[in-house]
Amino acid sequence: MSADGAYPIRQILVVLVVLPALYLDFIIYHTGNVWVALAMLVVIGLGAFVYLSGAGYTYRYLFPGFLGFGLFVIFPIVYMVYLSFTKYSSQNLLSFDRSLALLEQESYALGNAPYKYKLYAQEDGEYILYLESEADPTKRFVSAPFELKAGQQPLGPQEAGKLTPLAPGQEVLGKPLEFAQVTRQRLFIPMRGRQFAFPDDTLVGMEGLQKFASRARLWKLNPDGTLTNQQDGKIVHPDFSLGYFVTSKGEKVGAGFRTYSGLENYVRIVTDPRIQGPFFKIFLWTVVFSGISVILSFAVGMLLAVILEWKELRFRRGYRTLLILPYAVPAVLSILIFKGLFNQEFGAV
Fold this sequence. Notes:
Helix 7 (264-271) packs across helix 8 (273-308). The two termini are 42 Å apart. Among the domains are: 9-84, Up-down Bundle (Methane Monooxygenase Hydroxylase, Chain G, domain 1), CATH 1.20.58; 107-217, D-maltodextrin-binding protein, MBP (Periplasmic binding protein-like II), CATH 2.40.430. The longest helix has 36 residues, at 273-308. It is an alpha+beta fold. The protein contains 10 helices and 14 strands. Strands 2-3-4-5-7-8-9 form a 7-stranded mixed beta barrel. The chain has helices spanning 9-30, 34-52, 62-84, 96-105, 179-184, 188-192, 264-271, 273-308, 316-322, 325-341; strands spanning 107-109, 115-121, 127-133, 140-143, 161-165, 175-176, 195-197, 203-207, 211-217, 219-221, 227-229, 235-239, 244-246, 252-253.
């Protein structure tokens, strides 16, 4: 605060940046990305220190550069080195907990009498599911309000919605949707990816377009970490060398998960002929290309510097202005590289 009691513009601007950043960090933390939230909190704290503290204010011009260098150079290198010690591939994308959760969400039909259903639209845009047993119309159940995105399958395992019994004569809140509205609005697509649980923990899921059927959880988690198939009694266990749940016969079950592989990937580079040949060819060409690029850049740069110092040369200023292109073009191309690195489906980061 200044001597006249007013806050400097600098402090106000920093606060206007820090507060939304802290809110964003709070959201990231609640999505489960604890380490990302922690790293972001450290960056926010350093930024506030640099731009608000007298001791750190001398670094105000260096901080953005260091931040960009750490984010776009150091972080990808460190993360790529980390991935090299793991079994991470298109078949081993998920974490162990996520892979286990997917198996625990699997279910199978019990063959009981189906349930008629109806969706009730709520004023806030959510929906309530109403179920009525075809065998016993007095068995009626409703769910808590939930969100449906028309035409979109839910990503990842979804927690089963709880169903509560409906008392005789009790009405369901909301506006009932006709079957034609459900199909026209494509609400049946996200409904297929959802399951609901009765009070006895029996599951129910969509069968076809017009019915719901009782289901049971396919896999039961045992105290020793194995899973038992409740249909055929088959037992699977996590194999951390493969990154899969496997049976006693070695059959893979479910989605693969990331696991630590140590130096296995580096050993394969020098022992696997399919990798060894192409790798060393690419490595050698990379070193040669880098050396040639540096030498040619130095030679051409020196030549241009000498030529552009020639006072008799016309349009020298124009030529010097055009020299910004060799610096700008690689920066633009690097955007595509980082776009690929951060691709949510195939990117390494």
